[in-house]
């Protein structure tokens, strides 16, 4: 995957350790992320661990985290 754009693949094909926030709810409706060897980040729904995984450049995930921390996305949850 040499693209700088998001793509997808079966989550079962991701050979990485999946992690989720300690603040996740216990119902299994969480986002899990995995750091890939090529520096990209995979994202999947924990409820469907064998479903699709979205693959993003690390810089895109870092920008999302900065936006969340900075309150830039508050309008999405109001």
TrEMBL record:
<protein>
    <submittedName>
        <fullName>DUF397 domain-containing protein</fullName>
    </submittedName>
</protein>
<feature type="domain" description="DUF397">
    <location>
        <begin position="16"/>
        <end position="69"/>
    </location>
</feature>
<dbReference type="InterPro" id="IPR007278">
    <property type="entry name" value="DUF397"/>
</dbReference>
<dbReference type="Pfam" id="PF04149">
    <property type="entry name" value="DUF397"/>
</dbReference>
């Amino acid at each position: 995957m040499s693209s700088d754009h998001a793509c997808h693949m079966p989550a079962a094909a991701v050979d990485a350790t999946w992690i989720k926030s300690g603040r996740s709810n216990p119902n299994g409706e969480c986002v899990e992320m995995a750091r890939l060897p090529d520096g990209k980040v995979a994202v999947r729904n924990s409820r469907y661990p064998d479903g699709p995984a979205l693959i993003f450049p690390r810089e895109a995930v870092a920008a999302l985290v900065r936006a969340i921390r900075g309150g830039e996305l508050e309008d999405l949850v109001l």
